[in-house]
Amino acid sequence: MKTKVLKYIRAAVFIAVIAGLVKCIDFAMMPSGYIRYIIHAAGNPGTEEGYDCIILGASHGRSSINPKHMIKSGYAKNPLSLCIPGESVVNSYYLLKEACRNNAVKKVVLEMDYQYWTNDEARDSEFGDLFEYVQLPMSKVKLEYIRDELIDKDFRTVYFKKLAYTSDFSKVKYNIKTKLTKEYRDYDISAVKVCDANGPYMGRGFFYRENNNDHKCDFLVQEWTEDDISRKVIKYFQKIVDYCKDNHIEMVCITEPITPTAVVKGPSRDANTFFKDICSNNNVRYIDFTLLKNDVFDITDNDFCDWEGHMYGEAAERFSGIMSEVLANGNEEYFYDSYKAKIDEIERKKS
């Protein structure tokens, strides 16, 4: 009997040692990132009611939507953007549920970008599934994520954070030094190294991208058809819709403006028509801000750092004001009634 007890004790000690080693490796190898910061912010709003409006999406949303304008327009009292570069519709669903654990969310704005709706090997990889999961605190939401998405993955990706480790061992010293600071422990944005924002953090999930006259490569026309759309993405879009309806949350889907060249030569006309249809079929409001009239939102290719549509801060502030006004009041007169009218105006302006 005594021998059997000792076996259990040794097994427990072995597991504890391994778990401790994993935690130490996580501490040293995993950088202090923006995802950790913004998920924590969503769980600790610092107000009695918390955030009433959550914005979901990827890098376009983070660089083009300043939620403070929603307060000015009266659309929301306390909005927060949970837009994260690379964020898939799958991860948007779990981020929404995580936000709702600690906030009385009344409104959700979902940014729709066709690039995140297609079958993509990078997003369907284990890293694509996990780079936001690893920062979720332990809760029913995280357990649901494991059950629905990770049960068939390599077990190490569920328990370890190895896919988020830095690949540059020279950064280990910096990671440890950062994580020993009060700012890191207090989830201060100053302890977060954000390499892709290209500008200061303005709060509520918005980065003001500085205009550094980035050089754009030649524009490449991208092919897009409905056959390219991921069934998994549609499934999770439906889950977001159903969750909002079940919890009496007002849901609005939007597509943000992109470069005029991309409007003319790219697939946004077909992709956004698909978005309009899928939203209509689910009785969800859809606003295609690509169709804003030029006299309402006057932009050129130079208001973006790239062709796909990451806005510089000045344009983002202007757009955020217009978007918030439309969300609050409708303002149908701000939009062209067709892509033909929009494209004709772009071509006229060029000539």
| Helix percentage range | 40-55%
Specify the biggest β-sheet: 5 strands, parallel
Radius of gyration: 22 Å
Strand fraction = 5-15%
Uncertain residue segments: none
The strands making up the biggest β-sheet line up spatially as 2-1-3-6-7
Determine the N-to-C terminus distance: 91 Å
Order of helices and strands: HHEHHEHEHHHHHEEHEHHEHH
Report the strand count: 7
Spell out the blueprint of helices and strands:
Layout: H1 2-29, H2 34-43, E1 53-56, H3 59-64, H4 68-73, E2 79-81, H5 89-102, E3 107-111, H6 126-130, H7 140-150, H8 155-159, H9 172-179, H10 182-185, E4 201-203, E5 206-207, H11 231-246, E6 250-255, H12 260-265, H13 268-281, E7 285-288, H14 313-329, H15 339-350
Parallel strand pairs: 1-2, 1-3, 3-6, 6-7
Antiparallel strand pairs: 4-5
Helix pairs in contact: 5-11
Report on this model:
With 351 residues, the protein is of the alpha/beta class. 46% of the residues lie in helices and 8% in strands. The chain has helices at 2-29, 34-43, 59-64, 68-73, 89-102, 126-130, 140-150, 155-159, 172-179, 182-185, 231-246, 260-265, 268-281, 313-329, 339-350, and strands at 53-56, 79-81, 107-111, 201-203, 206-207, 250-255, 285-288. The strands form two sheets. Strands 2-1-3-6-7 form a five-stranded parallel sheet. The protein has a two-stranded antiparallel ribbon with strand order 4-5. The mean pLDDT is 87.
Summarize the structure.
The chain is an alpha/beta fold.
Please describe the structure with a list of short key phrases separated by commas or semicolons.
single chain, 351 residues, alpha/beta, five-stranded parallel sheet, two-stranded antiparallel sheet, 15 helices, 7 strands, 46% helix
